[in-house]
Amino acid sequence: MNKALRRPLIAGNWKMNKTPTEAKELIADIVPAVKDADNCDIVICVPFIDLALAVDMTYQTNVKVGAQNVHFAPNGAYTGEISAAMLKELGVEYVIIGHSERRQYFGETDETVNLRVRAALDAGLKVILCVGENKDERLANITNEIVSKQTKLGLADVATEALANVIIAYEPVWAIGTGLTATPEQAEEVCSFIRRVIAEKYGTDTADKVIILYGGSMNAVNARDLLAKEDIDGGLIGGASLKAKDFSVIVSEANA
Ligand code: PEP
Predict the structure, then answer these.
(1) Domains in the chain: boundaries
(2) CA 125 to CA 137: how far, in whole Å?
(3) Active-site residue among 93, 171, 188, 253?
(4) Which residues have C-beta within 8 Å of that of residue 229, sequence separation ≥ 6?
(5) What is the pLDDT of residue 181?
(6) pLDDT of 251 over the 90 cut
(7) Which fold has domain 3-255?
(8) What does the pLDDT average to over 208-230?
(9) Would you state the torsion angle of the CA atoms of residues 113, 118, 122, 124, taken in this order, to the nearest 10 degrees?
(10) Is 71 one of the catalytic residues?
């Protein structure tokens, strides 16, 4: 099975939650709770203001740190933005790009997503590229069209060698933060389709190695069935990543 070629990954997306004081408490609970998970990668994607303390507190542990966005310019007059080099120097290893909340509320397009992906990869960051259809698009039966377009445009001009640092998160927008989870079959169908889209462009050897996550109300109860699917290599977890216990249960399911 090709799944054996891929190391599972569980990434928490804290969104705009946790002040530095609160972040310290949560990280202090997460680190010991997941310390024995040797068979999967663990990432916490925290708000910019919590990144430095997260890097410090996870030093020499199995927990890695990610940001939730990055600007595409190397530096300059972009008030309020953060560059890839800034993240890299801080010790951040991952960055979420193109989350549906960024697309929906902050005018992110496939073109700006692609610019961010390339800037992050050039700086040596690992990218978690989010794709997914909204409810109307699913009802209109154009899910594949949407995720194919987002995947292709998000990865435009990204070389094959760089794919080792690209993780795709399939996140149906209707399942994010709603408590409505895609069934394991629905999630698998789209994740395997995304792998085929990547294979068309980069070949099957490369596509077989790409980590594809499911995200959308994954929790301690439904994680096992989702993670058992052939093309689902892990999860991007919002709400449940804010509770150390729930997050560690999901990690242990991925680690099993
Ligand atoms: C997310 O923010 O990427 C996410 C999947 O959120 P939730 O798990 O809360 O649906």
Answers:
(1) 3-255
(2) 31
(3) 171
(4) 184, 187, 188, 191
(5) 86
(6) yes
(7) TIM Barrel (3.20.20)
(8) 97
(9) 50
(10) no
> What count of other Cβ atoms lies within 10 Å of the Cβ of residue 8?
22
**88-136 tens-digit pLDDT:** 999 999 999 999 999 999 999 999 999 999 999 999 999 999 999 999 9
- Ligand 1 mutation target, pool 97, 101, 103, 176, most atoms within 8 A of CB: 176
Q: What pLDDT is stored for residue 1 in this prediction?
A: 64
Q: Is residue 111 among the annotated active site residues? A: no
Written as six digits, the tokens of 179 are 């408590």
Protein residue whose Cα sits closest to atom 3 of ligand 1 = 238
> String of b and e for 121-148 (b: at least 16 CB within 10 Å)?
bebebbbbbbbbbbeebbeeeebbebbb
Three-state SS letters, the chain? CHHHHCCCEEEEECCCCCCHHHHHHHHHHHHHHHCCCCCCEEEEECCHHHHHHHHHHCCCCCEEEEECCCCCCCCCCCCCCCCHHHHHHHCCCEEEECCHHHHHHCCCCHHHHHHHHHHHHHCCCEEEEEECCCHHHHHCCCHHHHHHHHHHHHCCCCCHHHHHHEEEEECCHHHCCCCCCCCHHHHHHHHHHHHHHHHHHHCHHHHHHCEEEEECCCCCCCHHHHHCCCCCCEEEECHHHHCHHHHHHHHHHHHC
Catalytic residue chosen out of the listed positions 99, 101, 137, 188: 99
